[in-house]
């Protein structure tokens, strides 16, 4: 009986907490469908008196579509590259024996303690020297190689017994076959978790495009919304419509992969 009461209280607490966290999103969605005069009306009118679908029509112009496409392109390519290279590095540092492996991994892991802001100036200089400044390729490479991703996926690869590798080697399989056909399919929850994290981080990245992009036709959705809000700051309904449109891919990605996120976070770091 006491246990049921405890579960009931915990459930109610989680429901209330979830509603509190959803309030900003609900207000943003409501404001995006209101006439401009009703956005800051008091008391708050959660359901618009008139649903202004025209707000979304006004936002989805050519520039918004271009920025949306730029974000999709940069985010998808970055996610694919980051997952590929982090998986390969994680496999190498967990399943391949070579001299100085652990020391090299510790040195790589130590770079994770360096704040990203501390290396912005060297990155900027290198990008200008390599003609990667103001290009999508430079923006893609910026987030394609992650120490965190290598560390995270290494925990999943370590959890796979080495007996699978030994059996595959007896059958004549090389490391590429073992990596792609045997070990990696066993850690798909971890890979999916990391892919979603990279997707969300890259899509929401504001600092990278702000510093390394200058041309308007290369702007990502975050830069475009900030520019749109500054140019039409009094049109909060249109700004909220653009913001709701911008977070839709994140909601879709999390809905599709939430099971992997929960499983991946629960099992990561168990072994190391």
Keyword list:
MetI-like fold; 0% strand; 2 domains; disordered C terminus; 13 helices; mainly alpha
Instruction: Identify the CATH architecture of the largest domain.
Output: Orthogonal Bundle
Largest sheet: none
What percent of residues are in strands?
A: under 5%
Q: Report the uncertain regions.
A: 268-272
What helical percentage do the residues reach? over 70%
Structural class: mainly alpha
CATH class placement of the largest domain: Mainly Alpha
Radius of gyration: 23 Å
- And the CATH topology of the largest domain? MetI-like fold
Number of extended strands: 0
Average pLDDT: 84
Inertia-based shape: globular
Please trace the helix and strand order, writing H or E for each element. Answer: HHHHHHHHHHHHH
What does this protein look like?
With 272 residues, this protein is an all-alpha fold. The protein has helices at residues 2-32, 54-59, 62-95, 101-110, 120-129, 136-142, 147-158, 163-170, 175-183, 188-204, 207-212, 221-231, 236-267. It has 13 helices and no strands. It starts with a helix and ends in a 5-residue tail after the last helix. The protein folds into two domains: 1-52, no CATH class; 53-267, MetI-like fold (Orthogonal Bundle). It is globular, with a radius of gyration of 23 Å. Mean pLDDT is 84; it is low at 268-272. Helices cover 71% and strands 0% of the residues. The chain crosses the membrane at residues 12-33, 72-91, 103-130, 136-157, 178-203, 234-256. Pfam families: BPD_transp_1. It comes from Evansella vedderi. InterPro entries: MetI-like, MetI-like_sf. It is a multi-pass membrane protein.
């Amino acid at each position: 009986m006491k246990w049921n009461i405890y579960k009931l209280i915990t459930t109610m607490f989680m429901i209330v907490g979830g509603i509190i966290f959803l309030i900003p999103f609900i207000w943003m969605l409501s404001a995006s469908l209101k006439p401009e005069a009703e956005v800051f009306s008091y008391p708050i009118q959660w359901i618009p008196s008139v649903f202004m679908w025209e707000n979304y029509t006004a936002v989805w112009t050519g520039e918004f579509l271009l920025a949306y496409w730029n974000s999709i392109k940069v985010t998808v390519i970055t996610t694919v590259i980051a997952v590929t290279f982090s998986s390969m590095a994680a496999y190498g540092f967990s399943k391949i024996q070579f001299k100085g492996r652990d020391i090299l991994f510790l040195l790589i892991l130590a770079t994770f303690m360096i704040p990203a802001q501390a290396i912005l100036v060297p990155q900027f200089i290198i990008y200008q020297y390599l003609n990667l400044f103001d290009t999508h390729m430079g923006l893609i490479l910026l987030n394609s190689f992650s120490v965190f991703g290598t560390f995270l996926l290494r925990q999943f690869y370590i959890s796979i017994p080495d007996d699978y590798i030994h059996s595959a080697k007896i059958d004549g399989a090389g490391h590429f076959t073992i990596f792609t056909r045997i070990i990696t399919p066993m850690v798909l929850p971890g890979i999916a978790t990391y892919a979603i994290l990279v997707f969300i981080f890259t899509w929401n990245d504001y600092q990278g495009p702000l510093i390394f992009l200058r041309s308007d036709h290369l702007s990502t959705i975050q830069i475009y919304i900030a520019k749109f809000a500054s140019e039409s700051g009094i049109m909060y309904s249109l700004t909220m419509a653009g913001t709701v449109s911008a977070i839709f891919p994140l909601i879709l990605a999390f809905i599709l992969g939430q099971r992997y996120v929960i499983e991946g976070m629960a099992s990561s770091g168990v072994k190391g």
